[in-house]
Amino acid sequence: MNTKIRLFVNILLVLSFTLLAACAAPTPQVIEKPVVQTQIVEKVVEKQVVQTQVVEKVVQQTAVPVVETVVVAPSKAGGELTVRTSEDIENFDTHTNQLQVFRSLIQWTIFEPLAQYDDKLTLQPVLAESWEQTSPTVWRFHIRKGVKFHNGAPLTAADVKYSLDRVKDPATASWLATNVAAMSSATVVDDYTLDVTLSAQVASFLDKLVQIGIVPKGSGDQQRRSPVGTGPFKFQEYKANEHVAVVKNPDYWQKGLPYLDKITFRPIPETAVALTNLQAGDIDMVSFLNPAEAAAAMQVPGATLTVQPATTSEAFFEVNRRKAPLSDPKVYAAIAKCFDRDAIGKLVYQGYGTPTNVPIAPQSAFHKSIPYEYNTAKAKEELQALGYKPGDIKLEIISWGGYKDLENMAVVWKDGLSQCGVDVTIQVLEVQVMLDRYNKHDFDIATNVAAFPPDPDVQYDIMWGPRLADDYKGHPEAADWIKQARQTTDLTVRKGYYDKLQDLGATDGPMVDAWFQAAMAANKQTVRNLVITPLTEYFFHKTYIEK
Amino acid sequence: MPRLIVQRFLQFIPVLLVSTMLVFTVVRLAPGDPATAQFGPRASDARYADAVRLYREQLGLSKPIYIQYLLWLKQVARGNFGDSIRSNQPVLFVIAQKLPATLELAFAGILFGLVLGIPLAIVAALRRGSIFDTIATVLSVIGLAIPGFWLGMLLLYVFALTLHVLPASGFTPLTQDPGRNLRQLIMPMITLGVYELALVTRFLRAEMIEVMGNDYIRSARAKGLAERTVIVRHALKNAMIPLVTVIALEVGYLLGGVVVVEQVFGWSGIGWLVFQAISNRDYPIIQGVVVMIAVGYSFANLFADILYAWLDPRISYQN
């Protein structure tokens, strides 16, 4: 009897463990399935093309308004969309919230900037109908008439001035402050004309403005909890860790838009749970998928993948050039040869996106194609020639927790470095711990990902700028090149400087550039016209639910 | 009894002081602070130095930790727990929003464990060595070992995706739509309750076995009492005393929320709130929740002490 009971118990235990194993999450497989490339299909009745012209050495740039008449098919109007966010949004202030999920998903439903890049990376006038440089350091903006804030107040130049001044004010604690660092004043000429005076010519000034939402004058204190903008949707309500809801703005200046009545953003931190909710029909869209998650999403019945194949979002490694032996350019050059971008493409990004050896996206006119070299044998010889035996160099790569693709990128480089005789440990850190070590420069190599507007001055300013004083003393000319490129609008001259910077970065830089990512979202097949721009911004202006 | 209650309330004070002081210090010693959460990588950019410094001053973070703590205590003594750094909402308001969900889930989980676990433990103890006892023991081991995330996902797959009988996630307040609330409660309750069930079964079974061997049980049977009376009125009552202690600790623990269960089912409670607050270094929320948990544990223990006296008349708090 006891033997039988023991046998029964053992069988039960084996069955239990088998059940546990069988019910484990399926390993994502790459399955061929048609994907929807983000595209806009619309009837354009009348359209004028925006042209930017460079005339002689005094640059005068004017933007001709784009007039579009959109024919609204009755079946497009109406409907509600539920979108997953990876974390809860507690702060709706467009000037102080730097969370990617807010900036990419929610911000541009409520707010609008003066100009914005569309999905073709063409700068489009938004709240500024047109602009010109009246002198090298003065930009004149003509504010669009007939635009109202969600509180009913009309948009005027005073509101734009307020917004720019607020971002610049240290008391606001805005992460965008450096975008307007060169602004010395903003002057209201009349209700619809604003002059912005810069301390020096800044060619990328417009690019820096595209990240700044315009808010009503004096509304700064309320924006965190009750945001007010001019966007296609109005803020309705927020319930902590439950949802954020925005509703259609009936007074939106683009007549006929938006189509949706309401968008609800629900925080669901775990992607597996989010995909379950998508399958159950509780949500309509899951954004910010990495390739492994996208493969899992393609198995969800009734769902499709929306892909922006070419973004400016780059995954890269920051190398701490302050520390030996990484401060040695020859060591840097050697370890850079141990990084296999082809393996990244196959194993980490599964063919989505493009490898890169430079930080400027391929779509940019300033991009220089510089071939990368992967040669571990040569790297090993170079290190040995420098006197390093295998195991002499020990490096630590720190990586952001929650970013599996970055962690896997680090694993690939670790593998390559081990073949070069370099010992590597990888630490995946909680966000605040990562930030703390990053800000204290307490790392050898750190993974990172960032999306920048197309003008390279923005990213060189943010990524290289802080390092030039301390990390990068070996190349004082780099700071001069960045400054020169910023202060001229001659495209040929700028290209020359950015070519030099890219050449320098590929051989002896503060970073190792790795991969320009694709942006992917899984959505129900009835969700149409979902737009993901190359800046990884989701636009819901023309999204509709197919009935 | 009234003296016991007064004594317990007086004991709250040192408990609250020690726990808040510890958490206050530990959180501020951890890497990162609200300024790094606000500015991210730009916190180390020299061009943001003024803004970062100003931000830290506005939040009082530039003062010594003990000064910050005393200022916070002074504020709390007036009933003001401050505002969330992230959302600017009053801490008490934020916690009050989340507490009903956590209380509901905690008590549902414990009730699930008690309602199923007590009979299971009794039968297993009475039929010790039988196949029923073996099954109960194995299931309780599985219940203790099974990861909550995995069980939650399994329940989602079966009941939400395959059978379509329950909603996948979300929380609707009980007062708003009781029917929907209860349907949303089922899966998270089971996920949490399986552990409680396992705990109650194992613990109570062991206690019952020990109690059933005592002389007074033999005497009760010898007196001719019905077996049911012997088990319920004599054995169970005595076996429950240690279990009350365990359940009181579980209540205190669950009042802090269970992040995994809340995230799997979108059950927006205290667990998720404090997890986010720790990630974002939202100090006022963290401190407010710590006070709430300390008070919760203290009340749970007080309730356990009162229950002891009811279960065992020999226990008296008169002296």
Q: What characteristics describe this protein?
A:
A: 547 residues; eight-stranded mixed β-sheet; B: mainly alpha; MetI-like fold; 13 helices; 76% helix; 0% strand
Would you identify the CATH H-level superfamily of the domain at 96-268 in chain B? MetI-like
Q: What value does the average pLDDT of chain A take?
A: 86
Q: How many E-type strands of chain B?
A: 0
Instruction: Output the structural class of chain A.
Output: alpha+beta
- Rg of chain A: 25 Å
What does it look like?
In chain A, 30% of the residues lie in helices and 22% in strands. Chain A contains 15 helices and 24 strands. Chain A has an 8-stranded mixed β-sheet, with helices on both faces. The longest helix of chain A is centred in the first third of the chain and has 21 residues, at 2-22. Chain A is globular and about 70 Å long. Chain A starts with a helix and ends with a strand. Chain B has a domain at 96-268: MetI-like fold (Orthogonal Bundle). Helix content of chain B is 76%, strand content 0%. Chain B has helices spanning 2-29, 34-39, 49-58, 65-77, 91-126, 131-145, 148-162, 178-212, 215-222, 227-255, 259-265, 270-279, 283-311. The model of chain B has no long low-confidence stretch (mean pLDDT 88). At the A-B interface, helix 1, helix 6, helix 12 and helix 13 of A face helix 2, helix 3, helix 5, helix 6 and helix 7 of B.
Summarize the structure.
Chain A has 547 residues and is an alpha+beta fold. Chain A is 30% helix and 22% strand. The longest helix of chain A is centred in the first third of the chain and has 21 residues, at 2-22.
Describe the SSE topology.
The complex is a heterodimer of chains A (about 550) and B (about 325).
Chain A (H helix, E strand, L loop, with lengths): L1 H21 L13 E2 L42 E6 L14 H11 L4 E3 L5 E3 L2 E8 L2 E6 L13 H12 L14 E8 L2 E6 L6 H5 L10 H4 L9 E7 L3 E6 L13 E6 L3 H10 L4 E2 L4 H7 L5 E6 L4 E7 L9 H8 L4 H8 L5 E2 L20 H10 L8 E7 L3 H16 L3 E7 L1 H9 L5 E7 L4 H13 L8 H10 L4 H18 L2 E6 L2 E6 L2 E2 L2 E2 L5 E2 L4 E2 L2
Parallel strand pairs in A: 1-13, 2-11, 2-12, 16-17, 16-18
Antiparallel strand pairs in A: 3-4, 5-6, 6-8, 7-8, 9-10, 10-11, 12-20, 13-20, 14-18, 14-19, 15-19, 21-24, 22-23
Helix pairs in contact in A: 8-10, 9-11, 13-14, 14-15
Chain B lengths: L1 H28 L4 H6 L9 H10 L6 H13 L13 H36 L4 H15 L2 H15 L15 H35 L2 H8 L4 H29 L3 H7 L4 H10 L3 H29 L8
